[in-house]
Specification:
Blueprint lengths: L1 E8 L2 E6 L4 E5 L8 E3 L2 H8 L2 H16 L3 E6 L3 E6 L5 E6 L2 H6 L13 H14 L9 E9 L2 H19 L6 E3 L3 H22 L3 H16 L2 H25 L3 E7 L2 H10 L3 H13 L16 H52 L1
Parallel strand pairs: 8-10, 9-10
Antiparallel strand pairs: 1-2, 1-4, 2-3, 5-6, 5-8, 6-7
Membrane topology: Single-pass membrane protein
Keywords: Cell membrane, Membrane, Transmembrane, Transmembrane helix
InterPro entries: Anti-sigma_RsgI_N (IPR024449), RsgI_M (IPR055431)
Length: 355
């Protein structure tokens, strides 16, 4: 009979067997979460000490069997993991139809009691084996983490980020962990301090600033039209190469997000994962019209498709901004030229009157 080590105290260890019983065994350098096999004779022998084991290990055993954290994994097959405070998997569920079909070809029961990072690696390996993740092709993986404490959530997200990148990051190392509001405030404070230091340095030598400005003005007036054309050519070439690199880049995009228990509950009500909800929310914002965006339509789509649609919306918005900026520049240049023309005309008229 299989059993898992749930607690260790000195020379004794508590094991949780497949039938739900807690027993005491000798500690043979076991580790918490380790699976062991117990013969019927040894099980019967040690089962007699179950009462003593409960007295010795009741609190740790309860902690081992109690869900403490939540993790979801989405490609399009979507899975969710219930985890204890030792980061050991208590239960794995297929969230959608694709996942239900996938588990028919894998030993999902074998993920129980594994460390979550190892369980996630195993699922990603199976996703590759079944063709959901293909080397050299675009793809997407979204992992969401939630726990009863903020510190645990942060540590869990960081560990999962490393695990996922080790498994699929060799295809495309582009990942992100959404940071909390507190972290953003720290970053903003640091940026503000940096700007103040730069301003302080600039104010030390005003004569240098004037000299630089004069040199810049002289250089700008020299061969103005020629330099302007060169800048345009270089900029266009740079933009073209940048867009080419972006278009040619392929691989698996990884996103790891930290979510609240409220988000987990909301996702469960909809029959999806919080990770999938998160990227669909981003897609709605990128569309430019989130109020009228049909999120339900996208919740069943693959992560790859959602991420691609989000990029397209962002690219369209960026192009619109460029067109607007270019239009403003043309309009401004036209006004400047008109003003200069009017000024030259007035000077000519003034000269005629004087003669």
């Amino acid at each position: 009979m299989k059993a898992v080590i749930v607690e260790i105290k000195g020379s004794n260890a508590a094991v949780l067997s497949e039938d739900g019983r807690i027993s005491q065994v000798k500690n043979r350098n076991y580790k918490i979460g380790q699976e062991i096999s117990m013969s019927n004779n040894s099980y019967a022998k040690w089962a007699l000490t179950a009462a003593a084991a409960m007295l010795l290990f009741v609190t740790p055993a309860w902690a081992y069997m109690t869900p403490y954290s939540y993790v979801s994994l989405d490609v399009n097959p979507s899975f969710e993991f219930s985890i204890n405070r030792f980061d050991r998997v208590l239960e794995v569920k297929a969230v959608n139809g694709d996942a239900e079909e996938m588990v028919k070809e894998m030993n999902i029961a074998g993920l129980k009691n594994k460390e979550i990072k190892d369980a996630v690696r195993n699922v990603l390996t199976e996703l590759k084996n079944q063709g959901y993740i293909t080397e050299g092709e675009d793809g997407g993986v979204v992992v969401a983490a939630s726990s009863k404490s903020e510190e645990k959530t942060n540590n869990l997200a960081a560990a999962l980020k490393t695990a996922v990148n080790e498994e699929v990051g060799k295809y495309k190392e582009k990942d992100s962990i959404e940071v909390s509001k507190d972290t953003m405030e720290v970053l903003e404070t640091e940026n503000k301090d940096s700007e103040e230091i730069e301003k302080s340095d600039d104010s030390k030598k005003p004569e240098d600033k004037s000299s630089v400005a004069l040199d810049n003005a002289q250089d700008k007036n020299k061969d103005k039209s020629e330099n302007k054309d060169n800048v345009k050519v270089e900029k266009n070439a740079s933009d073209k190469n940048k867009n080419k690199d972006e278009d040619d880049e392929t691989g698996v995009e990884v996103e790891v997000v930290k979510v609240s228990q409220q988000k987990v509950d909301e996702a469960k009500e909809k029959g999806v994962t919080p990770g999938k909800m998160n990227i669909v929310d981003k897609l709605a914002e990128a569309s430019g019209n989130p109020e009228d965006f049909d999120k339900e339509e996208w919740l069943d789509k693959p992560v790859k498709e959602i991420m691609e649609a989000t990029k397209n919306y962002e690219k369209e918005a960026k192009n619109k901004d460029k067109d607007t900026e270019k239009s403003v520049e043309v309009e401004t240049e036209s006004k400047v030229n008109n003003n200069q023309g009017n000024g030259n005309s007035n000077n000519g008229n003034s000269g005629g009157k004087k003669n």
